[in-house]
Fold:
Amino acid sequence: MKKLYLLFLSLTFVLPHIKADTSIDERIYILSSVWRNVRDNFAFPQHFEQSNPDSLYKEFLPKVMNARTENEFSQLMTRFLAKFGDAHTRFFVDSPTATIPIKFIGIDNKVYVKNIGRQYTKKIPIGSQLINIDGKPVADYLKTEIYPYVAAANDDWRFRKSLDTFLNGDVNTEVVLEFLTPEHKAETLTLNRVESQALNTYEWGHPEDNRVAYVEKLPSNIAYMRMSTFTEPTVVNQVFKENLPLFRNSKGIIFDIRGNRGGSDESWNPVIFDYIAPADKDLNTAFIMKCRVSNSAFQEYGSQISQLKDYATETAMDVIRTGGSYFSQISDSLKIKCPIVIITDGYTGSAAEDFAATMKNLELAKLVGSHTVGVISHPRYFDLPNGYSYGLSTWAFYNPDGSGIIETGIVPDIEVDYTITDLINDNDSQLEKAIEFIINTHEPPAKK
Structure:
């Protein structure tokens, strides 16, 4: 099982900073290298039915050769890799970081204000819906200006992912936003973009909690551990270990990984796994991992022998056998034995998804919330001329029953969607359901 999942916090689309000019030969080489690698090693060849790499190569080759600027060339490469529908498979370019003091969230395919600068809260309260951007409807703006550059395996994550930086641009450029407030009042706000660093100490309407991890004791003797990111494994593991006495004596534990975009598997593997898993649970059975495989002899007869068809279409996959099992290294007397719930949402991704899927597939925890983003794979990263680079998923992860993950994300055992009512009222129905599940687990069955 892979140890490192890189974050996908930033998008790589409009207006990248200009790099050194690439020659036509270098552009052909870059496109050809990327195309061939995708064609031979991309971990999700089923996507080729919709985005055939050979057809795309023929389509993009003249565009790449005739790109008028370096920006146009890098945008084309970004669009090329986005065609294959995988969030880890993407082209890396430097994008502008100037932004505005508003954070958005996607709910029911609509865009709402999740947080906003304190000076704007009376005019644009949290929960206001964004309607137009520079006079253009939000849905049209996303479809034409943003989506072609966003690598995602499903439409829901493409939408949510876009909201991270869809209004980024150059410093001091203006954007005009039109909203509908929760009271159904139309409001317009004109903002100039500022450097994103300027928002690090910004006064938000709703205070931001930027802690990597923390633990609280909830009523009914339930322990709650929030893990906002897996980018700092040492911090996460330290907080977990410091609270082991609380966890062992709790009626239940809630791990909250909503909004956790990933980082490193070492944030939970093996420490948290070791203290939760019974001695007979093999960590390496949580997933089936596959990669592409080729055989020219089989390919020759693929059109004649049905069992070899995948070789003829160059989409054959083989199971990756890492050679070995992994069982908990902690003695039974030290383990946590209470019920465990993991809360997920539509922004839980990558290494955080790996944690959630492992706990679910090994029946170590129940998942409550909404489905995750669908970014479970093993990516490799490749350097290109002139400072460019790209990522390519080369291992695909499947559930033990063989079902895929990236198209649907991880589906919780108990689905509870975060609603606009939750946002406006600062309510947490997902946490409430997690608490309810743990309490009900301990209650004796009702007498008939």
